[in-house]
Amino acid sequence: MLIIKILFAIVFLSAVLSVLFVFFYNQFQSAILRINEVENNIDDLLRNKFELLNRAGNIIEASTDLKETAFDDLEKLRSRKLSSFDLDQKLGELLNEFYKFREICPELRENESFIKINTSLEDIEEQIIACRSYYNDNIAVYNKLTKSIPSNVVGIVINAHEKPFFDGKDMYDNIYNDFKL
């Protein structure tokens, strides 16, 4: 009778542990799928932003007497192997240049193609902001799973490691000037 109770306890404990493992495994997989989906969306948006800025650079050169622009470095970005974080930062710098040209060159504000590119860039920027927020929300969920018990046990089994937020900042490094104003 004692052996039956022990076997029953072992089977019951195994069933509970299996259910917990499956639950947390599914939580990890759900977070990973959402993260991968939004990463693909961000990549597509960055690709579109790159192409629009490239076209804007051509319009700036053709419509103004400015022949040397910051957009000359845009083609160099294509050949470099940049992460999405770095590409987003570089394209953000170029977008600021785009806005400067828009302000200092009145002839650009009358160019229909330039206006369409401006509108498209503003739409893409809004979408990227939304995607960054969604990405960071899902990264927070994923990172909580990797750090909290008992889900971190499942994380160890499936080799899940903490991931950085979209800004690329490492909150655990020794760099104290991550947030620059």
Helical content stands at: over 70%
Radius of gyration: 24 Å
Topology order in helix (H) and strand (E) letters: HHHHH
Total strands = 0
Main β-sheet description: none
Shape: rod-shaped
Uncertain parts? 175-181
Mean pLDDT: 86
List the total number of helices: 5
Percent strand: under 5%
| Structural category | mainly alpha
Distance between the termini: 71 Å
Q: Can you tell me about this structure?
A:
- This protein is mainly α.
- Helix content is 73%, strand content 0%.
- The protein has helices at 2-63, 74-79, 84-104, 112-147, 151-157.
- Helix 1 (2-63) packs parallel to helix 3 (84-104) and helix 1 runs antiparallel to helix 4 (112-147).
- The protein is rod-shaped and about 95 Å long.
- The model is unreliable at 175-181 (pLDDT under 50).
Keywords:
5 helices, rod-shaped, mainly alpha, 181 residues
In short:
The protein has 181 residues and is an all-alpha fold.
Secondary-structure map:
Layout: H1 2-63, H2 74-79, H3 84-104, H4 112-147, H5 151-157
